Amino acid sequence: MPRLVVLTGFLGAGKTxxxxxxxxxxxxxxxxxxVITNDxxxxxxxxxxxxxxxxxxxxxxxxCFCCRFEDLADLVTDLLDTGRADAIxxxxxxxxxxxxxxxxxxxxARYGDRLTLAPLTTIVDPARVDVLDGDLGYLFDRQLAEANxxxxxxxxxxxxxxxxxxxxxxxxxxxxxxxxxxxxxLGEHVDELVARWTGEPPRGRDVDLDVDYDRYAAxxxxxxxxxxxxxxxxxxxxxxxxxxxxxxxxxxAACARRxxxxxxxxxxxxxxxxxxxxxxxxxxxxxxxEPTGPDGPPVAHATVLLNVRxxxxxxxxxxxxxxxxxxxxxxxGAAARPGPADAxxxxxxxxxxxxxxxxx
Length: 360
Ligand SMILES: Nc1nc2c(ncn2[C@@H]2O[C@H](COP(=O)(O)OP(=O)(O)O)[C@@H](O)[C@H]2O)c(=O)[nH]1
Ligand SMILES: [Mg+2]
Prior knowledge:
Layout: E1 3-8, H1 15-28, E2 33-38, H2 45-53, E3 56-60, H3 69-81, E4 87-91, H4 99-111, E5 116-117, E6 121-124, H5 134-145, E7 149-152, H6 160-173, E8 178-181, H7 190-198, H8 213-222, E9 224-238, H9 240-258, E10 262-271, E11 274-280, E12 288-290, E13 299-310, H10 314-332, E14 335-338, E15 342-344
Parallel strand pairs: 1-4, 1-5, 1-6, 2-3, 2-4, 6-7, 7-8
Antiparallel strand pairs: 9-13, 9-14, 9-15, 10-11, 10-13, 11-12
Helix pairs in contact: 1-7, 5-8, 9-10
The site of guanosine-5'-diphosphate has 21 residues, from helix 1 and strand 12.
């Protein structure tokens, strides 16, 4: 039977990177992999990136899996009816929780005889542990509390003794979950992650998670969303990589000055020089490039898709992004033209289904 893996975890934890690394591994082993991306807006950097790496990509836009359950179900039904995939990897919105009740159990109830649900996997960025406070900290904690498998990513970013101690700390705090460390970027231990997904389904007892929806909603609402496409050009040519780097660097520094948390700020830059993705997952951090490389050959035109989630009001986010684009224009010798900004604070989560745990 096909497997369906739901990946959750806070913004920037590495869900997309993990999904694509696992997708490549499964494909290399002869598996047929489909990927489903999800976010509150449309025009997703993740989808662009996934389409570059995996042939079969669907997306659920304008709401999370729980609030758009039927959109998710339509994609799953189509994949099952056409027999196209033996592994479906679905990435939930990074500010979502309560997925056992609102996504996993409803999927099991509907498709239990047609697919196997892998352990609900919460991806964790070590740099976020014990850092988020208030309602955001609550949301982060609930994401860990509901996991069958806690996959602690970015092992490459810490000395190994520190990373090991963090795994022990998480194991002690979540004795009901399987805890695994790995690096999606380097591909280290991704095979172990995949083994957990394709092995025996979770045996632990299904338990109801206590979620205070008012706190969950407050955390969601704190993170404003901005989604915008910029057309950048220069008759004499410019470096698309440099433009995007300076834009993100400037935005990152501006959020740090204001004391705002960046959930993620990411861009997909398309130009004749190819596709580059860059992201920042903490205010003040420099952008991380994928792939890394020099500034690249000059191009006359680039299309830059920007997705940001940060704790400032949507209208502030719009002006911060405008200022960042201005800085980038100056640095790269280009002129950027903004498309319409889709900027909003997500509304109260209202899941379509919320099923209790099966009796013991
Ligand atoms: N150092 C390091 N960075 C990673 C790793 N996996 C992902 N990242 C980076 O984390 C950022 C967010 O990754 P992404 O997959 O978009 O996270 P998502 O928001 O959870 O989907 C990107 O800059 C990735 O390059 C990893 O194993 N090590
Ligand atoms: Mg993602």
